[in-house]
Design goal:
Layout (H helix, E strand, L loop, with lengths): L2 H12 L6 E5 L2 E7 L2 E4 L14 H12 L4 H8 L3 E7 L4 E11 L8 E10 L5 H4 L14 E7 L5 H15 L3 E6 L12 E6 L7 H9 L6 E4 L5 H12 L3 E6 L4 H10 L3 H14 E11 L6 E9 L3 H8 L3 H10 L8 H10 L5 H7 L3 H7 L4
Length: about 375
């Protein structure tokens, strides 16, 4: 039986693509990630209670999904996890599978591992689909520069990047190159040329992929799946300085925190020069969080936007004045800026997000309490 046939009954039970993740482990009931938390698969069953997957079932499932019968031996030898994509045509989804080793075989017991399956739509969502403002397209100018999408793990950063790439692909003739660990979304060329490269399968590292793009590939737009170190950040600065539009993600709690994170990648003696470069080449930062809707049946995107569109913002970046940056973002509605608290207050007033949920994710709780006083 194929991997798609094996997982189809589970996905049919869930009946909604809003529940994005499955967690499977031998002998443990399968769990589904929902806005209410990780729910047992039995809570979705309309008939007999589903049995926990066996070791044999899971091993065969992963083998069929990844197309390698010896995958477990390879994982035991490398002592690292594995990840791959798989189409699920019945629901027009792409499944991202990640396998993690928990324990090697011992005392006659087979190896223990977990499987996480995330469903992703085949069609790349638009900014409006995600709940993001169309004004973000103003940051995608052919003039180039650096656009950062930031947030915690599982906050939708990859999807937002894909949506921005879709906007460019549909609106102008450009040469776009993406560098990703996994091709979670497939971009069909529209007006643009789109080349998607995976790390390390097609290119050994993000850094090498950037060097390749600069070395005769005539790239206009570069998308980097994740920036985690100084060499990659330096390469992105070089691309932005040479007139390319660069889109990238990194992990930070908010927009101002992203600036701090970038600066923190460099030693003290280099920071003044990097801040000056950032003040000149940063276009903007989008920071986001996924929150449970009040109906507990779907997620709502909360976000904030920092735009480097005024001399005051550029000067605050150059001086590393994070307090002033926050003030500029709060007062910059006319320039397309908005703070997380302003969006949270809007979501609470529209009854899309519970007040206590909003208060639990804000980084300025007292300010939000004033915006949404207890009723």
């Amino acid at each position: 039986m194929s991997g798609e046939a094996l997982i189809a009954p589970i996905l049919r039970m869930i009946e909604t693509d809003a529940y994005t993740d499955l967690f499977m482990r031998s002998g443990v009931e399968t769990r589904v990630k929902t806005p209410r938390g990780w729910m047992p698969i039995s809570s979705f069953a309309k008939g007999a209670r589903p049995q926990p997957p066996t070791q044999e079932w899971l091993t065969g499932f992963v083998a069929d999904m990844c197309g390698r019968n010896n995958w477990l031996d390879e994982m035991l030898e490398s002592k690292s996890g594995m990840a791959f994509m798989f189409p699920f045509d019945e629901r027009q989804l792409r499944l991202r599978c990640k396998v993690a080793l928990c324990a090697p075989p011992s005392a006659g017991k087979p190896p223990d591992f977990t499987v996480n399956v995330r469903n992703l739509p085949v069609v790349v969502p638009t900014l409006l689909d995600l709940g993001l403002p169309l004004g973000l397209t103003q940051m995608l100018s052919p003039a180039g520069g650096l656009v950062i999408v930031t947030g915690q793990i599982c906050s939708g950063k990859t999807t937002t990047l894909a949506s921005l790439i879709r906007s460019i692909n549909e609106s102008r003739h450009a040469n776009i190159i993406t560098l990703e660990h996994l091709q979670e979304y497939i971009h069909t060329p529209e007006k643009s040329i789109v080349t998607q490269r995976t790390v390390p399968d097609a290119v050994p590292s993000f850094l090498q992929g950037i060097h390749d793009a600069l070395d005769g590939q005539a790239v206009d737009v570069m998308m980097i799946g994740e920036v985690v170190d100084k060499p990659t950040m330096e390469a992105l600065f070089r691309m932005a300085e040479s007139g390319h539009l660069v889109l990238a993600t990194l992990h930070a709690g908010n927009a101002v925190g992203a600036i701090s994170r970038i600066v923190g990648m460099f030693p003290g003696e280099e920071r003044a020069a990097r801040l000056e470069m950032l003040a000149d080449k940063l276009v903007g930062v989008v920071a986001q969080r996924l929150l449970p809707h009040t109906n507990q049946e779907k997620y709502v995107l909360a976000y904030e936007v920092l735009r480097n569109s005024t001399p005051a913002v550029a000067n605050a970046i150059k001086e590393n004045n994070l307090v002033e940056l926050q003030n500029q973002m709060q007062q910059g509605g006319a320039q397309g800026m908005v703070t997380l608290n302003q969006i949270l207050a809007k979501l609470v007033k529209e009854k899309q997000v519970e007040r206590n949920v909003a208060l639990s994710v804000t980084y300025a709780r007292s300010d939000l309490e004033q915006l949404v006083p207890r009723s």
